[in-house]
Amino acid sequence: MSIILTALAPVFLVIALGVILRRVLLKDPAHWAALEKLTYFVLFPALLVVSAVKADLSQVNVLAVAGALIGTVVVLSGLILLVHRPLIAALAADGPAFTSLFQGAVRWNTYIVLAVAGGLFRAEGITIAAIALVAMIPVVNVISVLVLASFAGRHAPTFGYVAGQLGRNPYIWACGLGAVLNATAFPVPAVILEFGDILGRASLALGLLVVGGGLVLDRLARPRAIVFAALGLKLLVKPAIALALSLALGLTGTELVVVAITAAVPSAPNGYVLARQMGGDAPLLAEILTLQILGAAVTLPLVVTLATALAG
Known about the structure:
Layout: H1 2-24, H2 29-54, H3 62-82, H4 84-90, H5 95-106, H6 110-151, H7 159-167, H8 170-184, H9 190-213, H10 225-248, H11 253-264, H12 270-278, H13 282-311
């Protein structure tokens, strides 16, 4: 447990530093918008490409890792959509609020995944996490765009509209490029890999700072029931589904733990951007993200401890 807490502590300290910087040094929202764009369009895509190119797929059970995480997203999404009518009624929510609950439950924070997996397992953890992200990013974005188009009411979920939203997502392009370069064994020059690696390393620290800078602490005085519902679905139900599917698919060791980490981290800030673009309840999602970050400080070490015990 102490080893796990030692690996997780720096992640939450960087997030806490982002909270402080937002209130002391970088008070202008424009600063954080610029940092968010830099991370979203340049730094993190570089990390995805380099991680995918360097990934030694022969050492990872790719199909089981991808299957466990994609299966987790599909199962959880299906459960939420299956009970969406009574859920909306019980939580006194409207369509846009439901989309924020959905995104808060099914998305994951890629920066925290890579930081925690790398802190615990170094290069092996980063490799497995990168494979997981390459598999999940297109699936989650397709489902999220469809749900927002269906329930937020601003745009009809036509094929052209969904394709346009996905085509503008730099993560999907980065995942596709990295996967093609890896599969074809394309000889990427060492200087280019080192250049991308430097950008990628910067993305983790900057991404975590942006997460901290985006926390909306003043909204936590009276959180609504829908916020707690998203908290439970993301931090408890999703990891439970992921662990069950991982064990069913025969995952063990580091692979099982990294899958659990990917499922157990808080939701992603880029869901907030998508909510603003497509008519979702962005302020509600910001509230959900904030409470999940705080809640994950308690639940994530517990999930990792359980996964480590099950990993054998």
